[in-house]
Design a protein that fits this description.
The complex is a heterodimer. Chain A is an all-alpha fold. Chain A contains 8 helices and 1 strand. In chain A, helix 2 packs across helix 6, helix 6 crosses helix 7 (about 130-140) and helix 6 packs across helix 8. Chain B folds into 4 domains: about 50-200, no CATH class; about 205-310, Immunoglobulin-like (Sandwich), CATH 2.60.40; about 325-415, no CATH class; about 420-520, Immunoglobulin-like, CATH 2.60.40. The longest helix of chain B has 16 residues, at about 50-65. Classes of the chains: A mainly alpha, B mainly beta. Chains A and B meet through helix 1, helix 2, helix 3, helix 4 and helix 5 of A and strand 1, helix 1, helix 2 and helix 3 of B. Strand 1 (about 165) of chain A pairs antiparallel with strand 1 (about 1-5) of chain B, so a sheet runs across the interface.
Chain lengths: ~170, ~525
């Protein structure tokens, strides 16, 4: 099925100059991880938001000047709309049990104590190692706001998961 | 070494999607498609590809048409519908003037040449093009059919799918309104059914003067592709606003960087607002406070026209060419004199037919009048050739600029002076001052600063200095004296972080600073 995406994006690349196939290969896991955190472990929602954002980007073609930040912002918007529509706090879904078994239980539980924007900012900064300016571009907010989300999210995670130093390996 | 929480966070690196995202992406966009009243649901093959086709239709219509095209300014007063055969299917395009757009295909039956094999396709979820994508033409515009297909049947409806009475010829109805055309084309190899929409208007003066924006479908929908200004701005009525915080207007996708202002406003209780938007082409969308509108993403386009001359632009027509003058100074005209009279006294060199008027909307308020005070402009043949921004304390301050060939100048005899106190306003857009040149007093540089935004400190430092010199805002207005010498001084309005630290200076936040020339003590 990946061939279908390649075929679909190849046409776009010829007309738009954006290599969506390569972008998809290189970035889909990273986008998904950030959305997984943003939705506090809602794997189904993260997958749908990621896929829909890529699909919209491909449909938009060269009307997007900088596709990757656009994809992130679109995916955040889709996921947040769904979260608002559900109007309930994130809860464990069936597949999330597999994530808990894989050792993700603590971090997912802790992420649920943060706001979606705090989750996204923290993961983009400390998991994806992005600078604040780039995080701001991908979240579609100002750098000062990113710093506030980082400050609060970091403090909350320290409270929840501990601040003692461990080996960096 | 890292902290425990960071170690936990790194476990996310092992997370991978389990679903087949490739297959999902290959299906194309799904979510939040509009569901207009004119939606047609026809059982048969689902053709999601048409969604993308419809999107392309929308964009090409809106991006490529100039203001004159939008207003029905085509030299050729007719629509040309071209029906053509291709190897795979019939296709239709619509041309008006120099705009050509693809028409939405609802379905077709298409047979092989010299064979009985035929392919039929009827799309599910075909929508009329959104109103924002309707081509604007004068009433009674004829529709000429070209290509190798012929029109077998057609139907003209309003956007609610109600048939327009008396539409027996393929021509735009002789009345103002929105019309959707469903046309069946007959070809040698089969037939196809197509949709397109037109908005019928005599010209800008007959455009609606209110834009209705419906946010209920998860994205914005509008009732016209052209709207006319009113005396106090562009009038917008918002409906279906549950779950939304603001409407935002942005420059169209593809506009050059730096020319993309964003105007947002909260949704008023009565659902209507007069927005200080200047005439031109815009996109509007429904937004939440933490998710701003992006051009081209869930927005709809519209053209704002000004046939009644309610708007006077503060942008000089010669920009960015050299200006004859660009002066910021104080005057000796007391602020008890009316703004308009002060402007008349301060401007010289006006030609016959030149008109001094307030910038922005005549009955409007706020941003269009400039951030420092009342803004007057000189219009010559409808173009702005000079601008004067007045700020008032005991006497008026003047910020003047004019095009080099306009002959307009600021009167200097007996009305200008150099102040010995700098009046600074920390505003949302950055700092603003009433004079670009200030004289020192014996005890230093006197500043009177007003905080009308969310600044927490004022930084005053000589140009080139890397050391901040901060004065905190303890009240809305602070009067203080800074120890600096003559020369260029940078003045910034800044916000500290939660721990009271300054996160940057003039290099990091150039828009938060401006420079002032400080003269020696007299």
């Amino acid at each position: 099925m990946r061939a279908a995406v390649e075929e679909r994006t190849a046409d776009q690349a010829r007309s738009s100059g954006h290599d969506f196939g390569r972008l998809f290969r290189d970035e889909q896991d990273a986008v998904f991880r950030v959305l997984y955190a943003f939705t506090a472990g809602r794997r189904d929602l993260a997958e749908e938001a990621t896929a829909e954002a890529f699909a919209r980007a491909i449909a938009q073609g060269d009307r997007i000047r900088d596709p990757l930040p656009w994809i992130y912002r679109t995916a955040f918007r889709i996921a947040q709309r769904e979260l608002k529509r559900e109007r309930r706090p994130p809860t464990e879904d069936v597949r999330a049990r597999g994530d808990a078994a894989a050792g993700l239980g603590h971090i997912v539980d802790a992420l649920r104590q943060l706001s979606p924007n705090q989750r996204a900012a923290v993961v983009l900064r400390y998991e994806a190692d992005l600078p604040v300016a780039e995080i701001a571009r991908r979240m579609g907010i100002g750098t000062a706001t990113v710093r506030v989300h980082l400050h609060r999210g970091r403090n909350r995670l320290r409270e929840l998961l501990g601040a003692e130093e461990v080996d960096d390996d | 070494m890292i902290e425990r929480w960071q170690e936990e966070l790194r476990k996310l690196r092992e997370v991978r999607p389990t679903a087949d995202l490739d297959a999902r992406i290959a299906e194309g966009p799904h979510a939040d498609m509009p569901t207009p009243a004119g939606r047609r649901v026809v059982a048969a093959v689902t053709a999601f590809a048409l969604f993308a086709a419809a999107g392309a239709f929308a964009f090409s219509v809106l991006r490529d048409r100039s203001e004159s095209d939008v207003l029905g300014g085509a030299d050729e007063p007719r629509l040309v519908l071209t029906l053509v055969s291709t190897d795979l299917a019939p296709r239709a395009t619509l041309r008006y003037g120099d705009q050509t757009v693809d028409v939405v295909t609802e379905g077709y039956e298409w047979c092989e040449v010299d064979s009985d094999q035929c392919t039929s396709m009827i799309s599910d979820f075909v929508f009329y093009p959104p109103v924002s994508e309707f081509i604007v033409v004068p009433p009674g515009t004829p529709i000429e059919v070209t290509g190798d297909g012929a029109v077998g049947d057609f139907r003209v409806t309003d956007p609610d799918d109600k048939r327009v009475p008396g539409a027996t010829e393929l021509v735009v109805p002789e009345m103002h309104g929105l019309f959707a055309f469903q046309v069946t084309g007959e070809f040698e190899r089969g037939q196809g059914t197509f949709f397109f929409g037109v908005q019928s208007l005599d010209g800008p003066a007959s455009a609606p003067d209110v834009l209705t924006v419906d946010c209920s479908a998860g994205t914005a929908r509008t009732d016209t592709s052209i709207v006319r200004t009113q005396a106090d701005g562009m009038h917008i009525v918002a409906t279906g606003t549950d779950g939304w915080d603001t409407l935002q207007i942005v420059a169209p996708a593809g506009a050059p960087a730096g020319e993309t202002p964003r105007i947002g406003f909260g949704l008023p209780a009565d659902g209507s607002v007069a927005a200080p938007v200047y005439p031109g082409r815009w996109e509007i969308g429904c937004a939440t406070s933490d998710r701003p509108v992006e051009a081209g993403d869930a927005t709809v386009a519209f053209a704002l026209v000004d046939p009644d001359d309610h708007w006077a632009s503060m942008e000089l027509t010669c920009f960015p060419n050299p200006l004859a003058e660009a002066i910021t100074t104080t005057t000796t005209i007391p602020s008890s004199v009316a703004h308009a009279d002060a402007a008349t006294q301060l401007l010289s060199g006006l030609g016959e037919g030149d008109r001094i008027r307030e910038a922005g909307y005549e009955g409007g308020y706020g941003t269009q009048r400039g951030r420092a005070g009342f803004t007057y402009v000189v219009e010559r043949e409808g173009m702005t050739v000079a601008r004067l921004v007045l700020s008032s304390l005991e006497t008026y301050g003047a910020d003047f600029s004019a095009c080099a060939d306009s002959g307009i100048a600021l009167v200097t005899d007996g009305v200008l002076g150099v102040p010995d106190v700098l009046v600074l306003r920390c505003e949302g857009l950055g700092p603003a001052v009433d004079a670009s040149t200030v004289r020192l007093q014996p005890d230093g540089f006197h500043i009177e600063a007003s905080n009308i935004a969310d600044a927490t400190v004022v930084d005053v430092r000589p140009l080139g200095s890397e050391t901040p010199n901060l004065t905190p805002f303890l009240s809305v207005t602070e009067r203080f004296v800074v120890d600096v010498g003559p020369g260029t001084v940078l003045i910034g309005c800044l916000v500290q972080d939660e721990e009271g630290n300054l996160v940057g200076g003039p290099d990091e936040f150039p828009l938060a600073y401006l420079d002032v020339e400080v003269l020696p003590v007299e």
